[in-house]
Automatic annotation (TrEMBL):
Molecular function per GO: metal ion binding; metallodipeptidase activity
Catalytic activity: Hydrolysis of dipeptides, preferentially hydrophobic dipeptides including prolyl amino acids
Organism: Leeuwenhoekiella aequorea
Protein name: Cytosol non-specific dipeptidase
EC number of the protein: 3.4.13.18
Length: 487
């Protein structure tokens, strides 16, 4: 399938705009091209369009005849997307458009993230802005930047810019869910330098690769207990260190903070005298790990191969502390909500581990809907890494979004969903970070809600969106806009 065939899917207004958007590179913190694209889109429609001082794009469209007396609605989605690809995929995010394909009811990308998060929301807003026959109240389209790596667009949006009364955030990933709350988060970065030691005689060089994991969104999918490549790798390395004299040359595992790590690669040496025993141990331990995760990670792959002997390796005392710190660093669900069934309250993702040429770095993202619990886990992780001499920085903190079950727009959405689908929607808070909590700081009286089509595997190359779900979502959006409350 080609992107041309994607454009023919129904509703064409959404898929055409999504295909156009996916031709524009839009990584977080490098959104100049997509900002220009969206600004040109709004201006091309003859609508009031401007870019605020941090790069958010705002487009205003008057109400259609007969709906001028309704409250103004802000439709909000973020422009940036997570850029992730499989190691075997030859693709340049900086110069190529996303290559899409259809598999049954799903639209996917060829070995990369799809950008449905949050490109489907963006494309839906574009379809509404360009429509000539869709009834709606006054619309204020808010396209934020940098949602995926800091939410700096939402943070930088000043009070007083937006005029709307109701905000519809189109960034939820289950089409039967209406979002009323979300988790806040904080970035944890641990770094330190270390001295290098010359490799002694009697050593053999190896490379170990852990891959084939599912990965995914470190908020929405953390509850699944999926494998973390960094934690898996550390189990092998710690065992090798304690039993076979393993000495680390370098480690590169994971990537973005908000993606569960799928792959890790390490280079090291062991005492040659233990060579056969070490290989047998790796094989045995691999089988144990695959058995542990056979249901969750059926494609887990562990590959050991000999390489040239490293010339220098990590300082011995630093290496021991580092391996034990990674082993101790909490990963996954820390606490479930005692108030909302099946909601993760607090979690951490050990997202990135890098060891190379005298410098180590560990990146984590801690999330929680309860600020005190988030602080507790962040301090736990900070303590672990400070105990081995790391400098630890806590940054990028953003607030959660407290549910308002008395929200007027919530009642509109619940009623419309039941009317259209003959069943109740799932009203819930989520463990992902949404921009609603941040936007609510400068717009405390704004009535906010979040919903969207069904997306699976966000933040990973397995990202996909349901075609029938987009159709369901589009009908839902249109019906909501017809029934916005009076001013």
């Amino acid at each position: 399938m080609t992107n041309i065939e994607i454009r023919e899917l129904q509703p064409q207004a959404i898929w055409r705009n999504f295909a156009n958007l996916n031709e524009v590179p839009r990584p977080s913190k490098d959104e100049a091209r997509v900002i220009a694209f969206m600004k040109a889109f709004g201006e091309g429609l003859g609508l009031e369009t401007f870019v605020d001082e941090v790069g958010n794009v705002i487009v205003r469209k008057p109400a259609t005849p007969g709906l001028e007396d309704r409250k103004a609605v802000i439709l909000q989605s973020h422009l940036d997307m997570v850029h992730q690809k499989n190691n075997a995929t030859d693709f340049d995010f900086d110069s190529e458009g996303i290559k899409m394909k259809i598999e049954g009811d799903w639209v996917k990308a060829e070995g990369t993230t799809l950008g449905a998060d949050n490109g489907l929301g963006v494309a839906t807003i574009m379809a509404i802005l360009e429509s000539t026959d869709l009834p709606h109240p006054a619309i204020e389209a808010l396209f934020t930047i940098d949602e995926e790596t800091g939410m700096t667009g939402a943070m930088g949006l000043k009070g007083g810019i937006l005029k709307g009364d109701i905000l519809l955030n189109l960034d939820t990933e289950e089409d039967d869910e209406i979002g009323v709350g979300c988790a806040g988060g904080i970035d944890i970065t641990a770094t330190r330098s270390y001295s290098l030691e010359e490799v002694e005689e009697g050593k053999t060089g190896y490379q170990l690769i852990v891959n084939g994991l599912q990965g995914g969104h470190s908020g929405m999918e953390i509850i699944k207990g999926l494998g973390n490549a960094n934690k898996f790798m550390n189990r092998f390395l710690l065992d090798g260190f304690e039993n076979y004299g393993l000495r680390i040359e370098e480690i590169s595992g994971g990537g973005l903070r908000n993606a569960i790590p799928r792959e890790s690669v390490s280079k090291f040496c062991i005492d040659t005298i233990h060579d056969e025993a070490f290989k047998a141990d790796i094989e045995e331990f691999s089988a144990v790990l695959k058995e542990e995760y056979k249901t969750l990670e059926p494609n887990l792959k562990i590959t050991l191969e000999k390489i040239d002997l490293p010339k220098r390796v990590m300082n011995l005392s630093v290496q021991e502390g580092f391996l034990k710190a990674i082993q101790a660093a909490w990963n996954g669900v820390y606490r479930m909500s005692p108030d909302i069934e099946n909601l993760v309250e607090t979690s951490n993702n050990v997202a990135r581990v890098s060891v190379k040429e005298g410098n180590l770095e560990v990146l984590c993202l801690t999330r929680s809907s309860v600020e005190s619990s988030r602080t507790d886990l962040a301090n736990t992780l900070r303590s672990v890494f400070e105990l081995i001499g790391c400098d630890v920085v806590l940054s990028g903190e953003y607030p959660g979004w407290k549910p308002n079950m008395e929200s007027p727009i919530l009642q509109v959405l619940v009623d419309k969903y039941k009317q259209i689908n003959n069943t109740d929607p799932h009203v819930a808070a989520c463990h992902a970070g949404l921009e609603c909590g941040i936007l609510g700081q400068n717009y405390p009286d704004m009535d906010m809600i979040s919903f969207g089509p069904t997306i699976r595997g966000a933040h990973s190359p397995d990202e996909r969106v349901s075609i029938t779900s987009v159709q369901k979502f589009w009908k839902f959006v249109q019906e909501i806009l017809k029934d916005i409350p009076l001013k």
